[in-house]
Design goal:
The protein has 374 residues and is mainly beta. The protein is 6% helix and 44% strand.
Amino acid sequence: MINPKLGLGTFCVMIFAFIFSFRPSQSQANATPTPFQAISHYEKILNIPTLDSIHSPSSAHVNWSPDRENLAVTYDYSGTIRIVSSDTGALRFTLETPAQAAGYSVGYSQWSPNGKSFAAAVDRPVQNILIWDLSGSSVKAPLIISQTGEQPTFSWIRDGKELLSTGFMAQPSNAWWLFRWNVTDGRLVKKIRTDNARKIFVSYDGRKIATLTRAQEVHSPYLLQIRDVETFEIQRIFPDENDSFDLQSVVSWNTDNNQLAGASCNSISGTCYLWLWNTQDNQLRKPFKAVKHQSDGGNTGPFTILALNPKHNLLAVNDRSEPNYVWNTETGELISGLDGNASWVSSVSWSPDGSMLATGTDDGSVIIWKDTSS
């Protein structure tokens, strides 16, 4: 309710000022970055050389298991998934996909919430999602989910009995679809046509979905749609008409506390801002400017990776430059730079307890880092 002592005009001015307080000022955007002083020190504790001798050098992509014991490693142009020990880097076993024989890559992969299954999406030579049961003493042939559409991405429901996926169906609809699958038998449970939903995330409590969408027009901005997990009904869209920023395609959802991170970059100046939402109460936190300590004047360029720490208020960020950076999401402070990768960082994954960080690089190596400052 408007305070009668303020008047309608004064109230509108206050609202206008509040909305635009989220927009960085021109002086902020042009500010010269101050020298970076590391608050935390991440030490390299394990270096795993590439395990793909055929396609080397080839970018490595890492995915930490829920029990913290294993890393799933995939490489560009290789359809083989390698499960390695996170303690020693030793190869434990491999998972083969149809992409292996054809020389294609695994598009997307993820452990089930309980770590007893592993799923991977393959776009070529055919579009499938493959699910391996890893609970036994030996690895059996995977369950194959077909009719996923092109460029499939997916996310597990928290109980591990179902997963949600998105994919483009050229025939007969020429549109992007959202699917729900039973992972026991591969049965399709539900599907709806969407507004170009390219990526999907499921919240920790299993009640919400976030779908990253984009219009067909070239250079159109991304939108993040928060949906009900049962009905697929849209409950909130980020950014909305009150938000003064555009969203990049890189988004990270911390499923343990329902926080979601996004990024916005100016393609001309290279200045970037990181954003944080609480998807439980739909509150947008103020952005903080992502200024790094490189010799390029502090400009970051578009981000390629965002990874929220599952247990702490930390965000790992990369923009294809050699170091990786860790930010404090509470203070907006840059606390560490992970210098020491031999090549560009291609992927980032936090350990489930949040104590370690794994980075995959363009030369195929995987490095595990640990915060040794405390």
